[in-house]
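re: that chain from earlier
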Amino acid sequence: MIERLTRAGLLDISVRLDRSERLDLSDGIRLFEADLLTVGWLANRERERRHGARAYYNYNIRLEATNVAQNQNTTDAGLFARYQEASTQMVLGNTAEAAKAYQQVIDHGGDKLYGQMARLGLAEAHARSGQYEQAITAYKELVQRKDGQLPIDGILIQLGRVYRDAGRANDAQQTFNRVVEEFPDSPFNADAKRELDALKKTPSA
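^ sequence. v structure.
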């Protein structure tokens, strides 16, 4: 490797790194212009010297509303873009920003599928923010819709969990029982039964 460092003109930098000496701007320019594999070898050697076998990563996300979301709010593409923005904010834990984006989808989407999905997302954002009464109201409105395109059993599960988190055990039990009794073939049936068992084990239930 010494020969390769010499050919790349980086042997002196390697020696100074061995001495823990600080590199300057001219060294940085030389590294930038040097053979990438040699620079990578030097960088990895320095990393292993400092951190051993551990690796550290920095994960950055830059969020901006897309032009599609800004300029085509009423189109399916625009609604989808804004909905995706809201979903991403939820993943990042930014419930207030998510709620704003979901509300924009609702305002422009109306009763379209994305509008209904945004109502579901908004209810979840309220729940995660501890705004249980607002979440409960939103979930109940979705359950009561006759023309809804979303699965009622799935909404009931979410509603029951919000009741549970809000300390309304009786309402939670009734809601989970609806899933078990009204939707026996539902994929959420097992979840509802587990929630009911957990409520029975809770002293306050």
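The chain has a mean pLDDT of 86.
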